[in-house]
Amino acid sequence: MVSKSSPHKSALKEKEGISQPESIGKNSVAQIIQFRKQQPSAQELIDGILKGDKISLSRAITLVESTQPKHLEKANEIIQACLPYSNNSVRIGITGVPGVGKSTFIEAFGRFLTAFGKKVAVLAVDPSSTISHGSILGDKTRMEELVKDENAYIRPSASGETLGGVARKTRETIILCEACGFDTIIIETVGVGQSETAVHSMVDFFLLLKISGAGDELQGIKRGIMEMADAIVINKADGDNIKKARMAKTEFNRALHLFPPKSSGWQPKVTTCSAITHDGIAEIWEMISEYLILTKDNGYFSERRKDQNQHWLLETINEQLKNHFFEHPEIKNLLEENKKAVHDNEISPFAAASILLEKYFR
Ligand SMILES: Nc1nc2c(ncn2[C@@H]2O[C@H](COP(=O)(O)OP(=O)(O)OP(=O)(O)O)[C@@H](O)[C@H]2O)c(=O)[nH]1
Ligand SMILES: [Mg+2]
Fold first, then answer.
1. pLDDT for the residue numbered 221
2. Which terminus of the chain, N or C, has fewer Cβ atoms within 10 Å?
3. 96 CB within 6 A, ligand 1
4. Burial classification of residue 29, based on how many CB atoms lie within 10 Å of its CB (0-12 exposed, 13-18 middle, 19 or more buried)
5. Domain ranges of the chain
């Protein structure tokens, strides 16, 4: 209500009105400038990584995962500088269906390793994580102790459009982790699509995690995965499960002997363990150590890494050529038109492909 004695004090005039705020405050501009200044140079990151600084490592990995050309340029410079320091390690791939206990196993195994001075980095190739942004991240509860461990570093899966892209980033991340002093790299993957093949091509030792079922152990395992495995570990061998796990072990052993010998000279092994009670965990490390002695002696270890490097050279080229093609604005439009035309039987897929490729290479 407006009182009669002070008519000018109406609700409309009561407040002086504040000055229009600038759309970008001076303070925020200053902060942004400060932040940009704080972005360490490639050399600073390299120095940090080589000193074992995890923050520099994380920042460099973020550059690797970026899609901005400027970041990638910086990332390449860092990787190149880290490369000479990255060979003194063992890279272990772990796969298994959801729920088999990969995360629990990695927690137990990782803690076992750091307890005797190993430095463990855990990475993931998880093409399904594009949306959820990395299952390892949600897993940090499963890796409660490892996350806090001074000698461990856990990095969730890079997100990306394609498995190829995610895998390349993981592969580059391995190099950075190794230069940072991590000597045991564990790469987890869920058996989705071709992700096992991708992980197999970046590790020295490939471990398939299983649980014992109802006597039909071999059912539902892709032959290719059995062939890739250097070890099959039957997890959850605790409590009532122990006997079933032993039976599964016999069955897997028999099956593995049917495969032709590996060029590594290694006969794949089957063991049981419990990620909860830690039974059998030490034996797994013993087994991997045996493998390393054998393959380093017979030269397979270093030959394989060289082959893998060549493989990654070709993979990277393939991936980038594909990206460059599909991201090309003119191609994008033309592709849509041609997809429709192919769908409507107006043109053959081969003729349409020729049109697109000719346009691209012109
Ligand atoms: N009894 C028993 N349970 C286990 C063992 N290892 C894991 N588990 C349980 O199995 C469940 C799944 O374990 P996770 O480690 O999350 O399995 P995962 O393979 O990482 O699963 P995803 O991340 O979904 O692919 C959890 O409830 C664990 O507590 C084990 O050795 N023994
Ligand atoms: Mg998990």
1. 72
2. N
3. yes
4. exposed
5. 32-83, 86-297, 311-361
Q: What is the per-residue pLDDT for 38?
A: 73
Question: What architecture does CATH give domain 32-83?
Answer: Up-down Bundle (1.20)
From 97, 102, 104, the mutation candidate for ligand 1 (largest count of ligand atoms within 8 A of CB) is 104
Tell me how far apart the 2 most distant CA atoms of the chain are, in Å.
Answer: 104
Looking at domain 86-297, its CATH superfamily turns out to be: P-loop containing nucleotide triphosphate hydrolases (3.40.50.300)
The list of the chain residues with pLDDT below 70 reads 1-24, 34-37, 127-141, 160-161, 191-193, 214-220
Kindly provide the residue ranges of all beta strands, DSSP E only, lying in the chain, ordered along the sequence.
90-96, 120-125, 152-154, 184-190, 205-211, 231-235, 269-272
Sequence-ordered list of residues with C-beta below 8 angstroms from that of 204, at least 6 positions apart, any chain? 90, 91, 92, 291, 292, 295, 301, 304, 305
* Predicted local distance difference test score (pLDDT) of residue 21: 58
Cα(122)–Cα(170) distance, integer angstroms: 11
Ligand 1 atom showing the smallest separation from residue 239 Cα: 1
CB-based contact 252:214 (threshold 8 Å): no
If you ran DSSP here, which 8-state letter would residue 342 be given? Answer: H
